Amino acid sequence: xxxxxxxxLKLLADGKFxxxxxxxxxxxxxxxxxxxxxQHAEQLGVEVFSVRGRGYKLxxxxxxxxxxxxxxxxxxxxxxxxxxxxDHIESTNTYLMRKANGESNHATCVAANLQxxxxxxxxxxxxxxxxxxxxxxxxxxxxxxxxxxxxxSLAIGVALIxxxxxxxxxxxxxxxxxxxxxxxxxxxxxxxxxxxxxxxxSTAVIGIGINLRLPDxxxxxxxxxxxxxxxxxxxPIDPNILLSTLLxxxxxVLKEFEQNGLMNLSDEWTKHHAYxxxxxxMLMPDGREIHGxxxxxxxxxxxxxxxxxxxxxxxxxxxxxxxx
Length: 324
Ligand code: ATP
Hints:
Helix 4 crosses helix 8 and helix 6 crosses helix 8. With about 325 residues, the chain is of the alpha+beta class. The chain is globular and about 70 Å long. It has helices at about 5-10, 20-25, 30-45, 65-75, 90-100, 150-165, 215-220, 240-260, 265-270, and strands at about 50, 55, 80-90, 110-115, 120, 125, 135-140, 175, 180, 185-195, 200-210, 280-285, 290-295, 305, 310-315, 320-324. It binds adenosine-5'-triphosphate.
C-alpha cells in the first residue's frame, strides 16, 4: 500500500489539474514519489488523467467519505453506530464477516471510498470504483436465530427505499429479493451474510452498494442494465449524506424487524415492488425458467407467483427474478 496515494487523490478530488510539482511540494516529496503513488491508484483501477505540461486530474470532481461528516449528519444517532471509514478495502462484507464472531461491536458500520473486490450473491461480483458508488456493510447482532432472518433482505430494501425517497429519489423501486431499481435498471444491491445458530443468537453482515456515478468502463462490466444516482438526481448526492440517511433508516427498520419481522413492513415492501402484479420469469438454480404473475410476499419474504400450475412460492437465496 502506498500511503501517499489517497492523500493525493483527495487533493485531486476537486476535479481540476494539479501539476506534479505542486503536488510534490504540497506533500514535501519528490515528483517521482507522486508518480509512483498515482501508478498505485491506477493499479487499484482509479482513472487518473496525466497531461504533459498540465499535470494530473481525476475525470470528475468527487466527494470522499469522511468519518466526522457522517457523524455530524447522524447527530444523536452517531452514538448508535461504530463507524469505520476506509480509503481502500477489498470487500466491506468480507472484512466484517472475519470479525463477526466476537471482535466487532453490534452496529459496526464499515464503509469504503474504494472497494475493489465487492461480492454479490453466489460468488458474483459487485462492481465499484472511486466516486462510482457508496459501498458499506453493517454488522447487526440479533437475539433471534438465523432461521428467523429470512425476510431480512426485504426489510433492508424498505430502509433503502425510505432513505432514497427522503433524498428526492422517488423513482427508486424494489426487486425481489434484494435489489433497488430505477426504471428497471439496477441502482443498488444488498448482500446479507449470517453467522450463528439457527435458533440461538445470530449476527448479520448487511452489505450495500449504491451506484453514485458509474463510469462507462464499469457499466460495461455489468451483465445487466445498471444505473446510478447521477443519472436521476438534479443535484449531486453527497455520499456522506447518503450514508447517514441510510443509517438512520436502517436503525429504524432493523428495530422494527427485530420486534415483528416483516409484519409491519410487508405492505410497504409490496407497494414499492417494481414487479408487483407483473409478468415475470423466475430463473431457477437448475437452469429452469418459471413464468408467472407476481402476487405478493409472505411474512418470511417468500415470493408468491401465480403460474400455469397454480400459486408457487419462491424462497430467496438461489433464485433470480427477471421481467419479461
Ligand atoms: P439477480 O437477482 O438480479 O440475479 P442478484 O440479486 O443475485 O441478481 P447480486 O448478487 O445482488 O445479484 O449482485 C451481483 C450482480 O449484480 C452481478 O452479477 C451483476 O449482474 C450486478 N452488478 C454488479 N455490480 C453492479 C453495479 N455496480 N450496479 C448494478 N449492478 C451490478
